[in-house]
Amino acid sequence: MSDREIVVGIIGTGRIGQLHTKLLNRFVSGVRVEAVCDVVLESAKKCAGIEGIKKYSDDYNDILGNKDIDAVIICSSTDTHAEMISLAASAGKDIFCEKPISFDVDKIKETLKNVENAGVKLQIGFNRRFDPNFVRVRKSVVNGEVGKLHMVRVTSRDPSPPPVEYIKRSGGLFFDMTIHDFDMVRFITGSEVEEVYASGAVLVDKKIGEAGDIDTAAINLKFKNGALGFIENSRQAVYGYDQRVEAFGSGGMVEADNVQSNTVTVSTAKEL
Amino acid sequence: MSDREIVVGIIGTGRIGQLHTKLLNRFVSGVRVEAVCDVVLESAKKCAGIEGIKKYSDDYNDILGNKDIDAVIICSSTDTHAEMISLAASAGKDIFCEKPISFDVDKIKETLKNVENAGVKLQIGFNRRFDPNFVRVRKSVVNGEVGKLHMVRVTSRDPSPPPVEYIKRSGGLFFDMTIHDFDMVRFITGSEVEEVYASGAVLVDKKIGEAGDIDTAAINLKFKNGALGFIENSRQAVYGYDQRVEAFGSGGMVEADNVQSNTVTVSTAKEL
Amino acid sequence: MSDREIVVGIIGTGRIGQLHTKLLNRFVSGVRVEAVCDVVLESAKKCAGIEGIKKYSDDYNDILGNKDIDAVIICSSTDTHAEMISLAASAGKDIFCEKPISFDVDKIKETLKNVENAGVKLQIGFNRRFDPNFVRVRKSVVNGEVGKLHMVRVTSRDPSPPPVEYIKRSGGLFFDMTIHDFDMVRFITGSEVEEVYASGAVLVDKKIGEAGDIDTAAINLKFKNGALGFIENSRQAVYGYDQRVEAFGSGGMVEADNVQSNTVTVSTAKEL
Amino acid sequence: MSDREIVVGIIGTGRIGQLHTKLLNRFVSGVRVEAVCDVVLESAKKCAGIEGIKKYSDDYNDILGNKDIDAVIICSSTDTHAEMISLAASAGKDIFCEKPISFDVDKIKETLKNVENAGVKLQIGFNRRFDPNFVRVRKSVVNGEVGKLHMVRVTSRDPSPPPVEYIKRSGGLFFDMTIHDFDMVRFITGSEVEEVYASGAVLVDKKIGEAGDIDTAAINLKFKNGALGFIENSRQAVYGYDQRVEAFGSGGMVEADNVQSNTVTVSTAKEL
Fold this sequence. Notes:
- Four copies of one chain form a homotetramer.
- The first copy, chain A, is an alpha/beta fold and 272 residues long.
- Chain A is built from nine helices and 13 strands.
- Chain A has a six-stranded parallel β-sheet, with helices on both faces. In chain A, strands 8-9-10-7-11-12 form a six-stranded mixed β-sheet, covered by helices on one side.
- In chain A, helix 4 (78-90) packs parallel to helix 5.
- The model of chain A has no long low-confidence stretch (mean pLDDT 95).
- Chains A and C meet through helix 6, strand 12 and strand 13 of A and helix 6, strand 12 and strand 13 of C.
């Protein structure tokens, strides 16, 4: 497939669907966006217009039935992910889908089976696996730089909580936010979690608690390979997005620190 | 008492007793070491000789009965701490004692009661409370710089494990090593632990496991003030002593990083 | 002009001309690239084709004579800059031109006079003024954070020297490379240089010396506002692009450090 | 000499003489302070008393004539250094002397010749050569880590200027302060300066200018080994003592940063 364009169709042109359309259309070589669709026809039309894409529709079957399309990008609402994946797999399309597949574990397993049976590729949108810092940490673990892994830690804090309305539909902190960190520890350790202990608290906003969720979490992990681990989450870090990873082992330690907006240090007479 | 010397006696002149004698004798103004004692007379004699101290003995009663002595420094073996504290308290001496008071909680409580009744001062050797980095972190919490505290984390790793013989008598990782970190989180948060979950592993040295101890630990804490916390321990960090603290709250984050042996950075063409 | 598109024409579609065309065409909103030209028609045609621009030509008069075009981007060879600027100014176009205007100071002055007389805008391609790190340093000077300025230092090293053929036509290290740093110290200090002392050496590659140029320079500056300054240059830093700025004054110091490819630190047992 | 004590005498018990006496007496093993002297007898007596040294005097001949004394530490006023060194050399004593030897170059040469003829050891108090950071930088140069040296830079700023009365007698900024940096660049490069260009300014305090000195300097150096260099000085850095060194060469760069009073970072919502 390296000698020809990959032709893709976008299902769902909300905020994230528009972003994928723009990125694939303008910045990724070897890819062509053939068509977009959204249950709201006007949304699909607008997205297609901005990007100069000729085909748009309010019916995902226009994407799945299009023989020219190799792969679909599923950006529709979470409750439709599992069904869309299964349908796209049946239609023989390779699939990228935003996380999560479903809030229901059995449905996830069933969906993965459908994908397996269809023999197509499926990627879930765990974008942090492509962050150069986290990739570098994983490299240290894989190449033995830190030796046998003893401990992994992920600190993951968002700048500010999403609207309470979003939180209500989000599946909760662990499903909505920690899902990236659960994926990250699997990515870093190359192992699966065997034991988990989690404590949570409502420390950021009482309304989040009233909505039945927590906004702060401290999670203790034990991996199949023997390593221990921590994840710490908060919905609000006032100093900005806080994403750090540390892996510690018999040979040393590797840490990924936050990326700052600039590299400037100011030194003054102020007492610190 | 600021207008005159504090006169002290040292009980126990092993490694740590010698160190306290030297530091008090040479570097601390306003203090005079009057006498030292040790169950091994030769040890007391040698320590006294090096420091030019005239009185030494193999009987702690020579210290406790000396009316000139204001305060005692208890550096004898752990199993004698509780008794020495109680006796010194009865003798009206202020007390500094190395940690721990005892391996037995009831005995600790009884000892503290004796101290209270005697109305003397007691300080346990939690030296990290005087580390400028940790003091600075505590300052951030106390002065409100990080706002209401949500999370505290202590990373505490020793360069290499002590001899297995030591470990057998140490009371175990939590009692011997984490005791400093338990103290540190109380120091930083100004709150008491209400819930604790701990997982341990033998990842550094199998012999530690055979001795009935663990060498790696991951501890999850919940404080009375609502904050969550982590402690992570290892008996071996090959890159050296690793002591870091982070406190996170509604107003921001404060981190104490390790002190390095120099501030030098080398940049070369080597691929990193 | 904020309520309508700026229409631009590109003069010169070599490497940098192609880059400006792409950036303006794809990423900058409020701008439309109307036409491109190059003395090599094929180059202009190819550039236009890639970006979907309809008009291309081998005659810059097609750009200058186009009434729809508000502004021109001059990316032709350095020896044509002065003439192109004057012609574009006469045609009433606003101008962006790559550095330098000319190797001849009198010609530069004459060109600037033409621009002034025409009343159009002229910007020279000193891109580092838009680097967030250097902008932050300037902010510290402007807002008084470092007090009255006493010293400014620019460290500027390229990863590797350009081909000797390029160096021969470059005008030399000071004209080709230090020009950015001379601009940067003016940007940071907001003052003009009154005295300059420079020493140079050939330490990177003898061939650069044989071509009549230097590859390493140490420059001492004195500014009208009384501040002193340094610029240090090298054609080769094996560890990569090295661009740092420091400003020091009565109120403190501000430093911009290099941007690293990742934020990862690895700690091992290796002796450092 | 490693198998017996070095016996020393201190000449001059002002601030620095007292410090050397205390350090040698309490902290340096293998050394015994036999006697101290000062032109002010009371000063010598007090210093001897604090340190428990039996011999003190107001006549340096009591030191030079004492056969037990192996080495002298010269801490008397600068104008006496050259003579004291020569006398001590004649007396066959090894010598440590505070900087500078003299303000007069010919007198320095003559003094060094006397030392050479006497065959004794002479060390001048360039303490920064023993700073672990600068030692590490030198190591990088010596072991080839940075390749062939191209550039060295020393940033040297004091927290605040000395009293103007001191400045008047100091020999000026270059002699009093830069002397350490001139020594440092020789230490780092292992080469001698061949060309020097220096510019100075009075930016910190007008009174320093009125006393005939400068308080800010920018110095450009060229070394025999072909490397270039910079020294930058200021009498006042409001953020504290600022001592940094950077060496750059064909193989890379090594930098020594300042030592901070703690390793703590605070992150808050404040706009930076």
